[in-house]
Amino acid sequence: MGSRSQYWDRTTRQAAIKLTLCALIIFGFTCVMMQSTVWNRPPIPAREPFYTTLPGVDLSRVAPAKLPALLKHLNSWRCPCACLRTVASCRNHHGTCSFSVAIAREAAAAAEKP
Question: What is the pTM assigned to this prediction?
Answer without folding.
Answer: 0.58
